[in-house]
Task: structure prediction
Amino acid sequence: MNRLVDNAAKAAAILGGDPGAEQRVEALVQQGQLAMLMADARVSKGISQRQLAKKMGCSASKVCKVESAQDADLRVGDIVRYLSALGLETTVGFEDKSLPAAVQIKRSVFLIKDKLDALADLAKQVDDETVVKGIHTFYVEVLFNFLAKFEDSHKRLCSAVPVPAEMNLDSKARKPTNRAVAATSPRGRRRHALVGA
Amino acid sequence: MSEKTKQKPGLVCKMETRWQINLESANRSAFARWAKRHQREYESVFANLERVLAMLNAGSALGSFRLDFFRSEKQGLWRIGQTGVSAAKETRLYLFMDAHARLAHVLGIGGKESQQRDIKAARNIIGRIK
Result:
């Protein structure tokens, strides 16, 4: 028998003599994920349950109850108050899992663009040269990180499925197609904006 | 030594090991019996153990936080109860939490009616571990 294990789901499976228990315990842990994330945020800010309770204007046992709760039992008001007392903003996101992966990725790209635009607008109001320089550096950093992650992911794709011959970037330089030329012309760009890439 | 400290000029980087669970002191047949008779409660106490370990791995010190299902029985003995199980059989998972070695020793499992006996047995095991 394994003497040491690194998670409770494995321990449950070993001690109970039921390998299926591991998956079921993991599923139960997932049901308390939000409360765990919230507690994690509190701990990473170095705030105790008592201090947070004071900020929230409630008792420490209320904080304890929130952190012990299953996600389904959490109240939205409690989540907002808890996070706001930690100085965190609550945003609600919905992810339509029935949407194709390509649409989900496009949405994420647009979301990043919106955030970058907001940062650019903020930079306009900044008077400090060092901060402005920092924002410019950050933009370069974002591009670098994106390219690095993209390359990583693209390699993964190429190793999983063969690249179609006409899309192989390593093959000799290809003449741009008429469609590609049209897409870069002002008229073509307008068309692309209307019908999507 | 459970904590490794790497030092570079001007930078101190403290790396803490993750908590692990030691099953050596647990009576397997008692656990298997409880798992068979009270499956939902059995799985719930282990899910709650995972949540406790997540708090500890995130950086909370043992005893510095409270969770509804996690109680100290003094002298290093802790118990974890079940949550979210309707019409549940009250279940307690007994542990010896060794903060220095970052080890959670699983000692026993039982119900409310056997609490005194279970605590006594768990304390005996802790005596042997120490």
